[in-house]
Amino acid sequence: MELRQLEYFVAVAEEAGFTKAAARLHVAQPGVSAQIRQLERELGEPLFDRSARAVRLTAVGEAVLPYARAALAAVSGMRLVTDELTGLLRGRVVMGGVSTPSVLDLPGMLASFHDRFPAVEIALVENDPDSLLDGITTGRLDLGLLGLGAPLPPGVAVQVVVDQKLVAVVHPDHELAGAGSVTVAELAGRRLVSLPVGTGLRAALEDACARAGFAPQVAYEASEPYVLGQLAARGLGLAVLPESAVAGAASQLRVLEVAEPALRGRMGVVWRADGPMSPAARAFIEHARRHLPDLGKPGAAAASAG
């Protein structure tokens, strides 16, 4: 029995599929299948039910999974202790994120970390907010960058890195184009353009509308803030977006202040507050927190969201 087999087994169990597990492990799918079959031959029992479209653990697989995770954690712990004692910083860190606003110099942060720790491999993955938080809590991701709206899971720490005003933008021919401002109540019944459900901006919009007694009528969604402005510039609705995202289509839009109440969009870096952490991950988190300051409240400390 090899550690690689256990790693592949845990990955297939967590991803509920061989193809997704292979992508996560950056190996070919046939290699994953072959290693799992070898592990099953050694144990004498099937670990996965492959009869349905989705791969599911068998009863034996369910029983074996905690031991496989414990074995991998023990090996990881041995490496952590060794690296701590030798002072060697190497390994791999994984950062998950959603769309990044222009006010954050994420490439600069990554480049400066690489310059300081060239032996550490950095991987970036794009996630929806739920998957990102799941990756943080399970340890598959070392650091995440996401919009803040709904409460964070227990054991997750956060540092706000963006706190900026949200504005409304419309086509110059829109009936509100000359108003200069719009109240949240005036958004009722209007075709809106917004980021998807689960983002911090969408959560702020839905919360404000709920307090005003209605649900927003979102006609179009886009995961990139600048696309929201482009949709509004085409006359497809009133877009609510961060103030920093207006510049891309400013000449084609009319910008309105949002009042009663004013809205703000917040983003934060998040990481697991407890559990084992490699020296590389610890250094990466500390570097990101220094390089990506709280732009809304300078000097604010990170807080646990548990």
Automatic annotation (TrEMBL):
<comment type="similarity">
    <text>Belongs to the LysR transcriptional regulatory family.</text>
</comment>
<keyword id="KW-0804">Transcription</keyword>
<dbReference type="GO" id="GO:0005829">
    <property type="term" value="C:cytosol"/>
</dbReference>
<dbReference type="GO" id="GO:0003700">
    <property type="term" value="F:DNA-binding transcription factor activity"/>
</dbReference>
<dbReference type="Pfam" id="PF03466">
    <property type="entry name" value="LysR_substrate"/>
</dbReference>
<feature type="domain" description="HTH lysR-type">
    <location>
        <begin position="1"/>
        <end position="58"/>
    </location>
</feature>
<protein>
    <submittedName>
        <fullName>DNA-binding transcriptional LysR family regulator</fullName>
    </submittedName>
</protein>
<dbReference type="Pfam" id="PF00126">
    <property type="entry name" value="HTH_1"/>
</dbReference>
<dbReference type="InterPro" id="IPR036390">
    <property type="entry name" value="WH_DNA-bd_sf"/>
</dbReference>
<keyword id="KW-0805">Transcription regulation</keyword>
<keyword id="KW-0238">DNA-binding</keyword>
<dbReference type="InterPro" id="IPR005119">
    <property type="entry name" value="LysR_subst-bd"/>
</dbReference>
<dbReference type="InterPro" id="IPR036388">
    <property type="entry name" value="WH-like_DNA-bd_sf"/>
</dbReference>
<dbReference type="GO" id="GO:0003677">
    <property type="term" value="F:DNA binding"/>
</dbReference>
<dbReference type="InterPro" id="IPR000847">
    <property type="entry name" value="LysR_HTH_N"/>
</dbReference>
<dbReference type="InterPro" id="IPR050950">
    <property type="entry name" value="HTH-type_LysR_regulators"/>
</dbReference>
